[in-house]
Amino acid sequence: MSKVKTHKIIGLRSTLLAIVFFIFIILLSNQFDAYNQSQLTNIATLLIAVFSITLLTGASGQISLGQGAIMAVGGYSSALLVTRLGFSMWISFILAIFISALFGLFLGLAAARLSGPYLAGTTLVMALAIPSIAVRFEGFFSGDVGLSVDYGNPPDWLTNLLGEISIEVWSLYVVLPFTAIALFAVLNLSNTRTGRTWRAVRDNEVAAALAGINIGRTKVIVFVCASGLAGLAGALYGFRGLVAPSVYPTDLSLTLLTAAVIGGLRSIGGAIFGTFAIVFLPDLIEKITKNFAIPENIGTYLPALTIGLLLLITVILNPRGAAGALEHLRHRKRH
Amino acid sequence: MNSFLTALFSGTAQGAIYALVSLGLVLVWRGAGIVNFAQMGQAMFTTYIASQLIQHNYSYWSAFVIALVSGAVLGALVDLGLMRPLTSRKNSQLLNSQSMRTTIPVIASLGILGVLKALAGILWAGEERGFPSPVAPNAIKIGSTNLAITGFDLFVIGVVFLTLVLTTIFFTKTGMGLAMRASALNPEVTRLSGIKVGSVRTLGWAISGTASSLAGLLVTPRTNLSPNTLDLLLIIGFTAAVVGGLSSLAGSVLGGFILGYVISFVNVYSAPENVFIAILAFLLLALFIRPQGILGSKEVRNV
Hints:
The structure holds 2 protein chains of 2 kinds.
Chain A: H1 7-31, H2 34-59, H3 67-85, H4 89-111, H5 116-136, H6 138-141, E1 147-148, H7 156-162, H8 167-190, H9 193-203, H10 205-210, H11 215-238, E2 242-243, H12 250-263, H13 268-289, H14 296-317, H15 321-334
Antiparallel strand pairs in A: 1-2
Helix pairs in contact in A: 1-8, 2-8, 2-11, 2-12, 2-13, 3-4, 3-5, 3-11, 4-11, 12-13, 12-15, 13-14, 13-15
Chain B: H1 2-32, H2 39-55, H3 60-88, H4 93-96, H5 98-124, E1 139-142, E2 145-150, H6 151-173, H7 175-185, H8 187-192, H9 197-223, H10 231-244, H11 249-269, H12 275-289
Antiparallel strand pairs in B: 1-2
Helix pairs in contact in B: 1-6, 1-9, 1-10, 1-11, 2-3, 2-5, 2-9, 3-5, 3-9, 6-7, 7-9, 10-11, 10-12
């Protein structure tokens, strides 16, 4: 059955993969114009949130339609720390992870009692309610206007090293280390004892309980880890310019889930593929339809239609996503 | 006093609509073990159909009936075309996992929701439009004093009341209704006693589609119609279903009315911004105190 590897080799392999990923994105960004560089930053940011779904749904079988709301928690935490308390951006990102993880702890305590559709519905309600808290307590959270934050300017040592760099490139340099570390962490988790415990709970709760796994505690731990990741993504996402309710809409949660499903819920490579797909697909469609005289309203909704259909087709024909299809092909070749 | 009556009456009218949505969700949940997140997307679509018909000079009532029928057809199609093949595929590796068996249909229903919204946007341009009501939305007057209730509220309450009576008769007095209750309780035994469980299940989807379609027709005169209008209704309906008990039809209706009062009293006595937070708080409270719902029965987990 599944191969059990030792920690040491896993650590080395995931370190290498994270470094390869980092270098690949940097090289890719050198080929791009400013717009696509900022899209690449979006990918690197959202990827962290999609990883949180890979952990939550793929590895432990809990579904969340509210990861966008947890991103909002991370975004507001870091933005408030910077604007109100004068923290540095980097420290606020780290603290955002802990605050969102703490939030995930409370959420997880409630969610451990829930399964499947209950959890889906509750997190969906949360996705709607949490951004509205910012409007309700306008004095503290600045309401619909939001909090303006940005990545600032690159430090002198970096400009001395690389020459002048544009704001788009600097944004990517801020985000990418976090993405690489998140990738490293997620890669490690899935192959360790903890990851195997999570999968056992996912596949059969009763069997896992009989094997001595504390189901409730395991679910809460997954929620805490996933919330930390989503919160970090939310903080990075907000620092593109604005932390406001409109930055973290309900659709964001659904988009993240779509990315995870299209790529393959159980695969980290799939998460990367899915995130690239949802960010670049709308641009691609626009590029194609620009050559035809298509009415404006069709052009507006065509990306959403394509992504929705892609999600449906994936679920019906190939629920394991792009990564699953790839694995299937590889197996067939071998036999 | 007057604001209390306003909250009470508008809560009843709103609650009646929420009860329909929640009823639709529970019907599908009992029959198929799926929470259909696309339900109000389907309703949005059929309400657009009605709106198009009215724009092309059909009468309100013929559009009303056609919307209900297309709601039933759409519901049945979702089951036959998507949900049934999806859940009957037992040998798939992914569906072997316990949690994924409930997760995959949820994701599929979100896919349908996305597609329906985008289609509505493409077909009907996606800008907000009004939707007519057969009754004037003015407050009813006796002599010169305005009552706290509008004619439209009365219309909504009447239509929903009639629907609930018909549903009750269907489930308690007819063979088909009995078959639906039986197959929700124990599909295997029902199948053995000669009832086509599959068709019964599809019928459940169709009735659910009709109920939510009706909810769409009744709510849009107030909220206007756009591809996203009914999203909120789904969330409220879901909360109502959980509060009342996902496994109980009577509970779902009760939950709908409770939510109606909660929301309308928050609206009147607090502020509209607090509604979402109130819904979330209420849902969490319900899940902590009584996770099976007010009228729901406790779920037994089989090994």
